[in-house]
Task: inverse folding
C-alpha cells in the first residue's frame, strides 16, 4: 500500500462511484414509478401495484370499501386521463396519469441520447450470419465491436440518467427501478458485450474484469459502511485481526474484486505491525500476498497464470512453514491465501451470495467464460438465488443465455431500457431463435405485425415508440417516428401504415412542427395524411379568423368546396358591409399587390390556383367598390353586371346583389342612367336566375330585410314582390332610355 | 394533479377528450354541457364554457375530428342529438361560445350514445337509444355543417325494452383507416358488429361479440396501429371485462347476400325478451339475480342466426377478466395506440391492462378511488 488509510471511509468501496441506492426496509422489486401517485399496496387478484387516484387520501371520492358507478377515460396524453363518478353529489373530475409513465425532462434527454446511439448503428442494427459465399470474418468482428461500444455507451447513458434524478425525493422508486435495470445491463454487458471485440485480448480481459466487478458491487452495494465500522469499533481488548468478522470482511472484499478496500482493511487493522513483532514468517508471507494483490493482473490471462502460480507457491510455503502464531489467526491467513489461490471450497465458503461466488471464480480460479455455466451451477448450489429480487433471476438467465426471459423484466422496469437492450441483443444475434426447430415456422402468433413474427426486439421498439407518442412532450415524437422508421424488422409498407396512423396526432404548435410533419409525409409518401394535416390546419386557422391562411391550407388539402364556400362567405360579408373587407392579406391577394406588410414571396406561398379562381368574384366586387367610391357609375355598373352574369353565381347571391346594389343604386334612383344594353342584360339575368321559390334566396332576403336600416326601408316584405318591383323598375328604366 | 369540481349540479354521465387531449367535455343530468381546457402553464383544467344544451339528461358527448372544425355532439334522454360548433369570437365562460348547428331528433326513444365516426369516413355520426335503432347521420356538404342527412338506419332491437327495466346501449366505431367501415353496437346484453358493404353502401351484421351475461355498459374499439387484427373491449354488468380479437375471414372476404336482412331483428316483444332471459338462466348466484331486472335481446337476435351464417369476421374472445370484485364494469377505454386498456368498475378501481409479448392481457396497475 502506498498510502495510509486511517478511517473507515477510506476503506470502503466508493459508494458514489457505484451509485447504489437502497431504501431501508423496502424491496425495490416490482415497484413502479410513483412520482405523482402514491402506491398504496399490491392488488390481491393480479399482484399489480395499487395507486391512489389522488395525492391526498381525504380527497378520494369513495370511502373505504364503498362502491360506486365509477368510470375512467383514457386520453391521447398518457399523463392526463380522467376518472369520474356517475353518482349523486359526486361531480368532480379526477385527472390521473398512467402509472409508470416518466415525463421528466431528464427522461426525454435519456431517450434522445439512446435513440441517437441506436440510430448511429446504421447497418449494424441487423444481425446477419452469412452461411454462403465469402464469409467476411473481419466484418463480424467489427460488427461485434460496434455493438459492444454501443452497449457500453448505452449503460453510460443510463448511468447519467440515474445520476440526474437520484437526488429527487419524488423519484426514489423510479431510481430503484433504474438501478435494478442497470444491474441487469451490467451483467449482460459483462457476459455478452465484452469479449468479442476487435481489440486485443488484454483489453478485453481488463474490460471484462472491470465490468464483472462493477456488476457485482453495484448490484447490492455490500458491504455496508456501518458494518465495516462496527467490525473496527470494538469494546474489548481483542485486536480486530483476531476476529472472524474481520477476515470475513477482508475475504468478502477480495471476492468482490475490491482489492484496494481489502488491503486498506488490512492496513487499518495494523496486522502487519503485529506480525512483524510476533512472527516474521507470517509477516513476510502476508506482506508478499499484499504485494501480489496490489498487482492483480487485470489485463492478461498469461500474467494471471504467473500470478496465480506465485500465490499458490506462497500458500504452499505458508502451509509448510512453522510459524510463531498459531490457532485461529494462522487459519485466517491461510484461508485468505487459499481464497486468492482459487480454492473452490474457500471461495464458496466466504461468499455470501451466488454472484459473489460466481465472480470470485473468474477472479481467482480460471478466468474463462467457457466455464461460466459450471461456475454458476457451483455458486447456486451453495447460495440459491433470492427470488424476491427480479435482477437476480434475470442475471442467472443472462449467464444461461436465456436473453428473451430478461426482456419482460426490463420492460416492467423501464420500456426505453428494455427496448434498447432487446434491439442491441437482436443485432448481436444473442436472442434465442424464435423459429421452431422442426417445422421452421414461427413459434409465436403469426398475425401480429409488430410482435412474434418480427421478434421481441421489434415488439419492444414499437411499444416504446407508441409510448412516446402518448407523451405530452412533443420533442420525443421525432424519436418515436425515428424508431418506427429505422426499425430493421418491419417492411416499409408496415412502417408507412403505422406512421400514417400515428402522425396526425402530433400536437403541433409551431410552423417548424408543421414542416416536420409534412416532411415525414413527403418522406413516407403519405399524401392523404398530408391532406388531413392541411385540413386540420385549415379548420384551426378558420376558427382563429385567419381566413386566407385557412383557405390556403384547405386548397392544399384538396377541399375545394370549402375554399369555394369560404370565398363566397367573404363575398357575402363584403356585400353586406357595402365596402371591401378590412383584410390586408385578402386585398393584397386579390389585387396581386405585395407591400411592406405582405411581401411578394409570402403572397405567392399563400395564394393557390383554387383561391385565384374562387376569389375572382370577390376581386370583381372589390373593383366595383373602387369604381363606386370614385363615382365611376358606368364602370361600377358594368362590374356589377359582370357579377350578375357570372355563370356560377349562386341564386341567393344574385338576389343579394340586386337588393344591395342594383336596386338601390341604379333602379330606385331616377337620376342614375342605365343604357339599354345594361338594362337588357339585367333583365336577362333576372329572368334566368332570380328564383322566388329558392329556399336559400328566401332566407337571404329575410336577412337583407333584417339588416335594412329602419330609416331607409325601401324593400317590400316579400321576395316575389321585390321581384316584381325590380322588373317594374327595369321597365321604367328601359322606357326612360328609349324616350 | 388535483381533482376539480365540474360545477355540474346533477349526475355526470360522460366525459370526452378532443383529438389532441387538451380539451375535455362533460355532460350531465343537469342538462348542461361543460368544456374544460388544459392550461399549459399551470397544467390545470380551466372551464372554457358551460351551457344548457338539452331539455333532459345529457348522457353522451363526443368530439369530431379537428379537420372538421371544433365540433361536439351531445345525446340526451330528450330523444335528440345536437351538434355544436365553437365560436372563438365569443368569450370563454360566456355560455355563448358554442353555437348549435343542428338538432337530430328522429329517435323515438331516449338516446344513450352518440359517436362521431373516424375522420377518414367523413363527418359522420352514429347514435343509438331506447328505440333500438342505430342511426347514422352524415354532413354531406363539408361547407355546410348545419345540414345533416340520415343515411343509415338499422333496427338492432325489434322491440324497445320495457321502460321499467334497466337498459343500456353503447356504440364504438372501428378507428382503423385500413379497414372496412365498421361499428360495434351494444344493445342490452348483445354486442353486434355492423359492417358497410362497399358494393351497396348498406350496413350488415358482420359478427357478434358473444358471452355477455348482463347489460353491456361500455364498448371500445381499439386503435390498431401496427396490428393486423382488431381488438374490442367490453365492460359488462356481469362484472367482466372482455377483450375480443377480430380478424377478417379470408375464406369469406365479401359480405354475402344472405345477410342482407340481418340488420333488423324479428318480431318478438319486450316482455317476451325479458322472460326468456330469466328462464334461460338456471344459476342462482348473485350474477343471475342481478340480471333479473335486465331485458335480454338474446331471443330476438337468435332468430337472425340464419343470417349470421356468413359473417365475414372471425371473432375470438381473447380473455375475460372478473377482477372488479363481481361489481359492474362501468367503462372500458383504450389509449391512443391501443396498447393499454383501462377498465373502471363498481369496486371503485381502474385497472390498466396491457398485452404481453405472448398476447395475454395482464393487469399492470390499479388505481383506486377508495380511501385507504
Result:
Amino acid at each position: 500500500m502506498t498510502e495510509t488509510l486511517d478511517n473507515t471511509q477510506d476503506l470502503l468501496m466508493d459508494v458514489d462511484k457505484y451509485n447504489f441506492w437502497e431504501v431501508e426496509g423496502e424491496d425495490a422489486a416490482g415497484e413502479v414509478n410513483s412520482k405523482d401517485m402514491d402506491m398504496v399496496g399490491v392488488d390481491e387478484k393480479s399482484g399489480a401495484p395499487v395507486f391512489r387516484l389522488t395525492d391526498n387520501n381525504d380527497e378520494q371520492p369513495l370511502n373505504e370499501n364503498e362502491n360506486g358507478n365509477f368510470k375512467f377515460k383514457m386520453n391521447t396524453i398518457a399523463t392526463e386521463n380522467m376518472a369520474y363518478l356517475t353518482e349523486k353529489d359526486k361531480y368532480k373530475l379526477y385527472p390521473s396519469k398512467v402509472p409508470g409513465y416518466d415525463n421528466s425532462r431528464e427522461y426525454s434527454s435519456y431517450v434522445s441520447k439512446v435513440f441517437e446511439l441506436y440510430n448511429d448503428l446504421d447497418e449494424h442494427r441487423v444481425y446477419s450470419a452469412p452461411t454462403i459465399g465469402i464469409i467476411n470474418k473481419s466484418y463480424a468482428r467489427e460488427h461485434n465491436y460496434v455493438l459492444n461500444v454501443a452497449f457500453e455507451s448505452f449503460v453510460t447513458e443510463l448511468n447519467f440518467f440515474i445520476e440526474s434524478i437520484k437526488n429527487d425525493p419524488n423519484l426514489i422508486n423510479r431510481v430503484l427501478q433504474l438501478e435494478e435495470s442497470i444491474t441487469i445491463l451490467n451483467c449482460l454487458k459483462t457476459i455478452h458485450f465484452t469479449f468479442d471485440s476487435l481489440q486485443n485480448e488484454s483489453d478485453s480481459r481488463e474490460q471484462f474484469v472491470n465490468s464483472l466487478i462493477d456488476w457485482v458491487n453495484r448490484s447490492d452495494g455490500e458491504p455496508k459502511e456501518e458494518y465495516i465500522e462496527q467490525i473496527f469499533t470494538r469494546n474489548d481488548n481483542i485486536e480486530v485481526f483476531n476476529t472472524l468478522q474481520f477476515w470475513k470482511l477482508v475475504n468478502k472484499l477480495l471476492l468482490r474484486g475490491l482489492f484496494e478496500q481489502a488491503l486498506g482493511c488490512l492496513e487499518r487493522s495494523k496486522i502487519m505491525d503485529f506480525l512483524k513483532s510476533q512472527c516474521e514468517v507470517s509477516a513476510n508471507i502476508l506482506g508478499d500476498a499484499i504485494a501480489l494483490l496490489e498487482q492483480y493482473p487485470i489485463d492478461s490471462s498469461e500474467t494471471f497464470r504467473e500470478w496465480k502460480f506465485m500465490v499458490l507457491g506462497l500458500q504452499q510455503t505458508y502451509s509448510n512453514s512453522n510459524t510463531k502464531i498459531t490457532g485461529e489467526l494462522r487459519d485466517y491467513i491461510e484461508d485468505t491465501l487459499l481464497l486468492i489461490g482459487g480454492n473452490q471450497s474457500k471461495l464458496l465458503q466466504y461468499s455470501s451470495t451466488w454472484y459473489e461466488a460466481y465472480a470470485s471464480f473468474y477472479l481467482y480460479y480460471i478466468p474463462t467464460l467457457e466455464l461460466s455455466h459450471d461456475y454458476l451451477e457451483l455458486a447456486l448450489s451453495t447460495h440459491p438465488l433470492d427470488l424476491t429480487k427480479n435482477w437476480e433471476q434475470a442475471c442467472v438467465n443472462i449467464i444461461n443465455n436465456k436473453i428473451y426471459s430478461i426482456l419482460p423484466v426490463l420492460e416492467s422496469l423501464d420500456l426505453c431500457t428494455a427496448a434498447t437492450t432487446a434491439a442491441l441483443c437482436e443485432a448481436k444475434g444473442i436472442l434465442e431463435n424464435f423459429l421452431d426447430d422442426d417445422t421452421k415456422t414461427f413459434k409465436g402468433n403469426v398475425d401480429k405485425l409488430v410482435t412474434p413474427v418480427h421478434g421481441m426486439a421489434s415488439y419492444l421498439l414499437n411499444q416504446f415508440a407508441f409510448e412516446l407518442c402518448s407523451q405530452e412532450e412533443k420533442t420525443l415524437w421525432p424519436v418515436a417516428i425515428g424508431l418506427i422508421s429505422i426499425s430493421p424488422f418491419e417492411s416499409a409498407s408496415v412502417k408507412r401504415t403505422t406512421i400514417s396512423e400515428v402522425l396526425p396526432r402530433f400536437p403541433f404548435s409551431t410552423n417548424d412542427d408543421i414542416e416536420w410533419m409534412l416532411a415525414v409525409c413527403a418522406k413516407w409518401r403519405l399524401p392523404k395524411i398530408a391532406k388531413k394535416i392541411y385540413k386540420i390546419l385549415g379548420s384551426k386557422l378558420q376558427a382563429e379568423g385567419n381566413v386566407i391562411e385557412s383557405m390556403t391550407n384547405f386548397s392544399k388539402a384538396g377541399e375545394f368546396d370549402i375554399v369555394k364556400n369560404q370565398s363566397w362567405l367573404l363575398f357575402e360579408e363584403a356585400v353586406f358591409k357595402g365596402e371591401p373587407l378590412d383584410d390586408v392579406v385578402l386585398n393584397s391577394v386579390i389585387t396581386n399587390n405585395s407591400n411592406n406588410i405582405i411581401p411578394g414571396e409570402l403572397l405567392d406561398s399563400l395564394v393557390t390556383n383554387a383561391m385565384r379562381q374562387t376569389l375572382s368574384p370577390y376581386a370583381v366586387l372589390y373593383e366595383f367598390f373602387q369604381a363606386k367610391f370614385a363615382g365611376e357609375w358606368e364602370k361600377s355598373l358594368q362590374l356589377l353586371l359582370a357579377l350578375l352574369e357570372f355563370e356560377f353565381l349562386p341564386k341567393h347571391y344574385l338576389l343579394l346583389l340586386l337588393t344591395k346594389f342594383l336596386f338601390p343604386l341604379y333602379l330606385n334612383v331616377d337620376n342614375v342612367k342605365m343604357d339599354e344594353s345594361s338594362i337588357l342584360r339585367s333583365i336577362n339575368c333576372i329572368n334566368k336566375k332570380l328564383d322566388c321559390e329558392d329556399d336559400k334566396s328566401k332566407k337571404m332576403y329575410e336577412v337583407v330585410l333584417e339588416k335594412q336600416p329602419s330609416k331607409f326601408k325601401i324593400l317590400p316584405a316579400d321576395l316575389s314582390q321585390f321581384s316584381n318591383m325590380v322588373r317594374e323598375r327595369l321597365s321604367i328604366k328601359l322606357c326612360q332610355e328609349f324616350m | 394533479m388535483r381533482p376539480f369540481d365540474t360545477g355540474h349540479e346533477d349526475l355526470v354521465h360522460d366525459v370526452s377528450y378532443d383529438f389532441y387531449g387538451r380539451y375535455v367535455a362533460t355532460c350531465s343530468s343537469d342538462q348542461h354541457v361543460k368544456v374544460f381546457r388544459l392550461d399549459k402553464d399551470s397544467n390545470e383544467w380551466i372551464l372554457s364554457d358551460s351551457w344548457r344544451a338539452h331539455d333532459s339528461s345529457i348522457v353522451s358527448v363526443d368530439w369530431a375530428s379537428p379537420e372538421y372544425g371544433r365540433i361536439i355532439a351531445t345525446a340526451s334522454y330528450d330523444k335528440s342529438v345536437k351538434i355544436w360548433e365553437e365560436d372563438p369570437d365569443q368569450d370563454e365562460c360566456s355560455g355563448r361560445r358554442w353555437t348549435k348547428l343542428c338538432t337530430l331528433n328522429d329517435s323515438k326513444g331516449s338516446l344513450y350514445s352518440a359517436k362521431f365516426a373516424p375522420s377518414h369516413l367523413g363527418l359522420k355520426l352514429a347514435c343509438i337509444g331506447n328505440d333500438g335503432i342505430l342511426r347514422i347521420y352524415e354532413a354531406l356538404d363539408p361547407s355546410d355543417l348545419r345540414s345533416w342527412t340520415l343515411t343509415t338506419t338499422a333496427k338492432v332491437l325489434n322491440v324497445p325494452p320495457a321502460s321499467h327495466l334497466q337498459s343500456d346501449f353503447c356504440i364504438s366505431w372501428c378507428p382503423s383507416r385500413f379497414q372496412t367501415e365498421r361499428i360495434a353496437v351494444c344493445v342490452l346484453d348483445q354486442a353486434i358488429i355492423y359492417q358497410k358493404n362497399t358494393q351497396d353502401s348498406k350496413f350488415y351484421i358482420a359478427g357478434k361479440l358473444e358471452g355477455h351475461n348482463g347489460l353491456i355498459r361500455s364498448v371500445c374499439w381499439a386503435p390498431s396501429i401496427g396490428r393486423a387484427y382488431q381488438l374490442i373491449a367490453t365492460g359488462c354488468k356481469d362484472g367482466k371485462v372482455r377483450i375480443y380479437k377480430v380478424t377478417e375471414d379470408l375464406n369469406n372476404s365479401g359480405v354475402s347476400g344472405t345477410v342482407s336482412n340481418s340488420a333488423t331483428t324479428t318480431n318478438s316483444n319486450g316482455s317476451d325478451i325479458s322472460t326468456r332471459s330469466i328462464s334461460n338462466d338456471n344459476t342462482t348466484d348473485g350474477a343471475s339475480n342481478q340480471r333479473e331486472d335486465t331485458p335480454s335481446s338474446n331471443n330476438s337476435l337468435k332468430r337472425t342466426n340464419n343470417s349470421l351464417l356468413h359473417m365475414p369476421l372471425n371473432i375470438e374472445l381473447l380473455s375475460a377478466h372478473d377482477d372488479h370484485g363481481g361489481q359492474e364494469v362501468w367503462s372500458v377505454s383504450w389509449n391512443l395506440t391501443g396498447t393499454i386498456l383501462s377498465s373502471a368498475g363498481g369496486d371503485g378501481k381502474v385497472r390498466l391492462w396491457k398485452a404481453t409479448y405472448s398476447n395475454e392481457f395482464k393487469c399492470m396497475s390499479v388505481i383506486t378511488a377508495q380511501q385507504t
